[in-house]
Amino acid sequence: MIGMHAASREALERLLEALDKGLNESAETVGTGANTGSELFDLVDMLDTERSLRIALIDSAQPAEKRVALVKDLLSGKVSTSTEELVSAAVSQTWSNTRDFRAGLVQLGRRALLRSAEAQGQLARVEDELFQLARIVENEPQLELLLADRAASVDARRDLLAKVLYGKVTSTTEALALQAVGRLQQRPVEELDTLCNEVAGLTGREVARVRSAAKLSEQQQTLLEQKLETIYGRKIAVHSEVDSSLLGGAVIRVGDEVIDGSTAGKLQRLRRSLA
């Protein structure tokens, strides 16, 4: 919801609440969530190429009933009832602009997929897969360059990432990552990190990215989580990677804050003090 106008934020909050309630009451949360998320992503792809339709769907000069009728003409028989009802509810809201409307549909799609993963007990796995994927992209500059290439078609960028992901991640992780790469708002690695943060946020946690000179044991990771939760006063999800260039210790990033306890960092500070 970052960057959204107030009216759009309020609309999205109401829709997310309605989506969560509907999925919680559904006897088929896994299937409904996965299907709704996929269909919403497909709808966003279509709206990206249909400017007049985007405008018509949020035209506040027209009564909500007319906008809902347009949705039914567009989607009836082509998507599930739950998706049609959710989009009908979305166009009944007040949106500041078409960009916010599309961003809202993306957020709803993500939430639906994540609720499906949660019902399968896969939420933690999806979070870790997104973090690890972000690190792969971060450590392969050529791959990130290709994924960010606006001259390439959306399908070409998604096909490239699909080849990287094939058989290695859950269907939820794949769907989230492919959608993000197709509608980049920032660097690919930042998009993936944002997704990881959103998954953690769903369970009230914030991600701590840890680079350590050696692999953290499960016990070390648990102790670090506890210490960081004491420092920051909120739940923390620790995700770690090995960086041998640190020589020893670790560098921890929580949001915009960085705690540098690495040997390399200490040496660098020592050099600065002697300069």
UniProtKB/TrEMBL annotation:
<dbReference type="GO" id="GO:0016787">
    <property type="term" value="F:hydrolase activity"/>
</dbReference>
<dbReference type="GO" id="GO:0005886">
    <property type="term" value="C:plasma membrane"/>
</dbReference>
<dbReference type="GO" id="GO:0046933">
    <property type="term" value="F:proton-transporting ATP synthase activity, rotational mechanism"/>
</dbReference>
<keyword id="KW-0139">CF(1)</keyword>
<protein>
    <recommendedName>
        <fullName>ATP synthase subunit delta</fullName>
    </recommendedName>
</protein>
<keyword id="KW-0406">Ion transport</keyword>
<keyword id="KW-1003">Cell membrane</keyword>
<keyword id="KW-0378">Hydrolase</keyword>
<dbReference type="GO" id="GO:0045259">
    <property type="term" value="C:proton-transporting ATP synthase complex"/>
</dbReference>
<dbReference type="Pfam" id="PF00213">
    <property type="entry name" value="OSCP"/>
</dbReference>
<comment type="subunit">
    <text>F-type ATPases have 2 components, F(1) - the catalytic core - and F(0) - the membrane proton channel. F(1) has five subunits: alpha(3), beta(3), gamma(1), delta(1), epsilon(1). F(0) has three main subunits: a(1), b(2) and c(10-14). The alpha and beta chains form an alternating ring which encloses part of the gamma chain. F(1) is attached to F(0) by a central stalk formed by the gamma and epsilon chains, while a peripheral stalk is formed by the delta and b chains.</text>
</comment>
<comment type="function">
    <text>This protein is part of the stalk that links CF(0) to CF(1). It either transmits conformational changes from CF(0) to CF(1) or is implicated in proton conduction.</text>
</comment>
<dbReference type="InterPro" id="IPR026015">
    <property type="entry name" value="ATP_synth_OSCP/delta_N_sf"/>
</dbReference>
<comment type="function">
    <text>F(1)F(0) ATP synthase produces ATP from ADP in the presence of a proton or sodium gradient. F-type ATPases consist of two structural domains, F(1) containing the extramembraneous catalytic core and F(0) containing the membrane proton channel, linked together by a central stalk and a peripheral stalk. During catalysis, ATP synthesis in the catalytic domain of F(1) is coupled via a rotary mechanism of the central stalk subunits to proton translocation.</text>
</comment>
<dbReference type="InterPro" id="IPR000711">
    <property type="entry name" value="ATPase_OSCP/dsu"/>
</dbReference>
<keyword id="KW-0813">Transport</keyword>
<comment type="similarity">
    <text>Belongs to the ATPase delta chain family.</text>
</comment>
<dbReference type="InterPro" id="IPR020781">
    <property type="entry name" value="ATPase_OSCP/d_CS"/>
</dbReference>
<keyword id="KW-0472">Membrane</keyword>
<keyword id="KW-0066">ATP synthesis</keyword>
<keyword id="KW-0375">Hydrogen ion transport</keyword>
